[in-house]
Amino acid sequence: RVIRKVEAIIREEMNRAGSIEMLMPVVQPAELWQETGRFDKMGPELLRVKDRHGRDFIIQPTSEEVITDVARQELRSYKQLPKNLYHIQTKFRDERRPRFGLMRGREFTMKDAYSFDRDVEAAGKSYEAMFAAYCRIFDRLGLEYRAVAADTGAIGGDRSHEFQVIAETGEDAIVYCPTSGYAANMELAEALAPSSPRAAAAQPLTLTPTPGKSTCADVAALLGLPLTQTVKSLVLATDSLDDKGVITGTQVWLLLVRGDHELNEVKAGKVEGLKGGFRFATAGEIDAAFGCKPGYLGPVGLKGVKIVADRTVAAMSDFVCGANQADHHYTGANWGRDLPEPELVADIRNVVAGEPSPDGQGVLAIQRGIEVGHVFYLGKKYSEAMNASFLAEDGKPRHFEMGCYGIGVTRLLGAAIEQGHDERGIIWPVSMAPFEVVICPIGMDRSELVREQAHKVYAELQAAGVDVLLDDRGERPGAMFADWELVGVPLRVVLGERGLKEGLAELQGRREAQADNVALGELLAQVRARLKA
Ligand code: ATP
Ligand code: MG
To answer: Cis peptide leading into 358, omega within 30 of 0?
Structure first.
């Protein structure tokens, strides 16, 4: 019932935004996915199956290929544009780590919409319309959320936003600036270079014994220095391949972040030379390049290793780093004196709370969220790959400008529960609740009055369009109340013989500790007012 309510709100708002509902197949021919190359490129998340004739199919994890195929057959002229199509349907992703029930299942329900436009400007309007529709949807669902800018990968541009429901248990870190309204996900949030220039070298380079201390924290503690004086080394490798995919060479990379900072792999993947993909180096590769085991690696005196320094590291002086000798670190290391200036300087780390916002208008804060929706400008990625075009006003064929827009319908239930619960169970927002009101009659089997009034109130609320449930199981009051608190029905009406004799019912909200006595004649009005509030 909750899924149906969420779907109904999504449907209403998508339709209102001019999107057209359709239904695409769950089982899709591999040929379409081969056209875009995703049949081979996507990992095991894509479930591949064969039919009785041995032909390849996939179970849809998303539907760009099918919708682009529909568009190239149905949309021929600019006069048919813009078009936006959606469906709400089962998706399957063979996730590496399915977990947290509805949050990350392998089979789940997604609303996915796709827009087709004649040019970039029109695609921007479609994007804005979907963004606005998403805000209306999540507002109506009664959730606390934030739209955060997200990475656009190879497509580029700034049109990608994730809708994150705020929850401490969320998988994603959201970076935002309370004063400016800036919000981005961790992959995108930029860590600015330190505002003050690098200080002059003040210490000599000193080889310092650090036996058994292989982490920055241990080394800093041993030497009595702040962690912010240390530099952490991460070793990556890139392989060059020939046309047949055979490895012809390997380059080892040393990425440096300050001891208290964390590497961000998405950011690292944007560094020139790492864009084509990288992996962590093997123990053998590390030994060959550094002559030393991990824990004592550093940038001084290296040959043949490409060094990428985080912006913060590039501005450090007198720093502590591994000496490429077991059980030793250098203190007082300085760029330009003890080792060459870093060849590559880039933002390769996660931002931390308290540092300046990239828009220069305050400091960053971090909170956790659950991604429930994503709006994404695709450009011509799919229309070019599948040669989907329309005739433009000048009579020439042109590839569609596309966008895609997803909402995790089933994940939304999990997110709502994370935001609304207490020790007694779920507290649904009214718009999502499986029932708005539950009637709990006490002693219905013993009292004719209770039985009669319970059915009467039930019929009255139902006739008024209230989504009401009558608990006629004959359970004891305690058991009845506990069940409906667990299920999270927003309003409870208790009817007992004593109250009914005085013409009274008890009305209690799920978040309230006390019930109110309400005259039976006032009950409907009271219920309506409370559901609206
Ligand atoms: P995630 O990073 O959480 O894996 P995604 O980037 O793969 O998400 P999209 O491809 O943008 O997600 O899918 C659209 C929406 O579908 C997501 O915003 C999310 O709400 C939902 N979703 C994605 N994967 C799952 C899953 N395994 N189970 C439930 N919902 C999911
Ligand atoms: Mg995913």
So the answer is: no
